[in-house]
Amino acid sequence: MSRTEILDSVDEAVAGIEDGSTVLVGGFGFAGMPFDLIDGLIRQGATDLTVVSNNAGNGEVGLAALLKAGRVRKVVCSFPRQSDSYVFDELYRSGRIELEVVPQGNLAERLRAAGAGVGAFFTPTGAGTMLAEGKETRSIDGRDYVLEYPIKGDVALIGAHHADEMGNLVYRKTARNFGPVMATAAATTIVQVAEVVAIGSLDPEVVVTPGIFVDRVVAVPARRYTVEGAR
Amino acid sequence: MSRTEILDSVDEAVAGIEDGSTVLVGGFGFAGMPFDLIDGLIRQGATDLTVVSNNAGNGEVGLAALLKAGRVRKVVCSFPRQSDSYVFDELYRSGRIELEVVPQGNLAERLRAAGAGVGAFFTPTGAGTMLAEGKETRSIDGRDYVLEYPIKGDVALIGAHHADEMGNLVYRKTARNFGPVMATAAATTIVQVAEVVAIGSLDPEVVVTPGIFVDRVVAVPARRYTVEGAR
Amino acid sequence: MPLTPHELAAVVARDIPPFSYVNLGIGQPTKVAEHLRPESGIVLHTENGMLNMGPAAVGDEVDPDLTNAGKVPVTELPGASYFHHADSFMMMRGGHLDVCVLGAFQVSAVGDLANWHTGAPDAIPAVGGAMDLAIGAKQVFVLMTLLDKQGRPKLVPACTYPVTALGCVSRVYTDHAVFDVGPGGAVVRETFGVSVDELRGWLDMPLTQP
Amino acid sequence: MPLTPHELAAVVARDIPPFSYVNLGIGQPTKVAEHLRPESGIVLHTENGMLNMGPAAVGDEVDPDLTNAGKVPVTELPGASYFHHADSFMMMRGGHLDVCVLGAFQVSAVGDLANWHTGAPDAIPAVGGAMDLAIGAKQVFVLMTLLDKQGRPKLVPACTYPVTALGCVSRVYTDHAVFDVGPGGAVVRETFGVSVDELRGWLDMPLTQP
Description:
The complex is a heterotetramer, with two copies of chain A and two copies of chain C. By secondary structure, chain A is of the alpha/beta class. Chain A has helices at about 10-15, 35-45, 65-70, 85-95, 105-115, 180-185, 225-230, and strands spanning about 5, 20-25, 50, 70-75, 100, 120-125, 135-140, 145-150, 155-160, 160-165, 170, 185-195, 195, 215-220. Chain A has a single domain (about 5-220), classed as Glutaconate Coenzyme A-transferase (3-Layer(aba) Sandwich), CATH 3.40.1080.10. Chain A is built from seven helices and 14 strands. Chain C has one domain (about 5-210): Glutaconate Coenzyme A-transferase (3-Layer(aba) Sandwich), CATH 3.40.1080. The longest helix of chain C has 11 residues, at about 5-15. The chains are: A alpha/beta, C alpha/beta. Chains in contact: A-B, A-C, A-D, B-C, B-D. The interface of A and C includes residues 3 and 210 of A. Strand 6 (about 120-125) of chain A pairs antiparallel with strand 6 (about 120-125) of chain B, so a sheet runs across the interface.
């Protein structure tokens, strides 16, 4: 038993997400993307969302489906423009969605800062560029830095490989990407995994996200999108 | 083959450390303390060192032996005062060593900042206390923060469990402590391990410190100090 | 009758909600662990890099690579995890722990904490994780005697010792009474063989009752 | 004769020191990997969380959980490691990579880089890891054609496109020549079927020779 809830269905896992929430969505392209949780969020109905994710959706599945359903007010991401990001493109060009572009490493670090209780930090990334316009800058030891603030989520939706019943998580290969930092940065972290294993089944040395960061877990059958589908 | 040097002796591993260096020393009490590297550093002879470590030595072994040998100008640590820290105590009271006390979490985060290329960061730890005197402070979203700067090392001396021949490291239990952050924060990271294993022997999912952070590795026979000895 | 340290540790343990993630400070707070029921699902954090720490190690269990923050050998429970110091203090600073139990020299009515430095001019300063722990949990409980060895109150209108953090303490467990502290001042929650008026006689501050 | 893209990728590969930790940007720089000799001990980093990345996956090797930064399926080599995004970008921002190879729209004589935005008013801005990569290696190599499709130089006195980072590029590999750039301006290291005086005719900047 632990504070982490192990739930039987995706719909239970995404219950209670409120309109206007900031939702952190893991994944880099399709790797680590919590497709089932996003589908659940679409069914759940929350709207006026701010979504923080590396990309802004591919094709018409996952994040793109959420955007297409009209639930997203703003996207905070590093790279919205992909060959198959036409759902986002159309919303953006027609002025129906806001966009904040954040360099990928600053995105990861701002999420980490939220999880780590850091109030703000000086990063060299973006200094001297148009993405630093209007931001506080400072020269430290002869190098230029931009002050960046944490990005906190109300909810994080994450895909991981296995969870134990305490919510400890392990990931698989490059599907790890944003999951571990987003798990720390949200008030409520919801994780879909391929399998929930018994307490004691994960070696304590190899846990990547300790259960303290994990609120809800649901196991879903593997549903792999082909990589071709992701382009 | 890799950039990481796998060396046959402790003396080769610590060769070239210069007088006046800032040396990051891993370990928390005796767990993870790189005893053999410190002994090697004493033989090597570098002096006028600034040592960054959580404690300031126990008994007359390890860090305490380095202090006793008169090689340390300044200690940066969170907790110098222990029941058996008499070597440090005497140096400090007689004005022969400088001390900078840093809250333990700020110490870890300042080391991480050095490794992560963060120019400075606002931390709530220490705000409103005498350890914040003279430092820049700021209120962010109604909370008080202190601006802290990175702590960079010229050299890090670290104890880990196993290394592979590319310098990838795994640790053991709470002996992990400061090793992974110090490895990122030093120009030259030197590691003693119980065993060097072949490339391919470590599961890529469980590597804690990737070899990119590791410059030199030496395997030394286990030499465990009893915990009684550490008090 | 005032509580013994053992009894007081049990009172603290009773008040920690099930399934909480908890850090117990070095010294007396460590004793709270002895009173946590396994079925409570409470998970102990130790800032040197572990969650789900078990009891002190005995005999062959002793492993120099596995200690608590007081450098005492401990054990691991099923479901444990290990992590490095930056990640460990991220858990604290980021507010992920539910409860932290600390000792103190002084606590003020508004929850300022002094527990790292007596202010003695010849003391070697040493803070360890005290400041990080003080700011790093959703609730900070202090466990201390109400009076020091000279009979002076340790619950004070304002700390005279150097502070560890401001306004961080939410509750103070003492041998004579339990107090909530915070912006509204001290509130007596529970007394042990003493009346609230008697407490008012000892303490130099207004005391309210819930 | 100007070099083909294939030949130019080989020139870049030749110049990367053995045992370097290297990030190859999306697009043309990715091709440099094909020219790295296994015995060089060069380790490839991909910013989506891996060191010692192997070649593109083929057939049964394809695993949706294992891609490079361009989202192309790749393989892992022995001695690989995986890590999360904050740790991955820490490697870059902290200056731990030896070499990063990037494409560019423009590079200035002092090493300013423009490779993320054409400045077109209707373009959807998208930066990805470009700014982190630009500031995040001990040496940043740019691999590009010397002239754009309209015949205009891409090595320029000052970038007219929005910059990715200032003063970050150390060397520029083009089909016609290789240049060092930096505070001292552009230095011609090597030419491919063109004289330095001809280059001077094309480029609007002083060119020196080592």
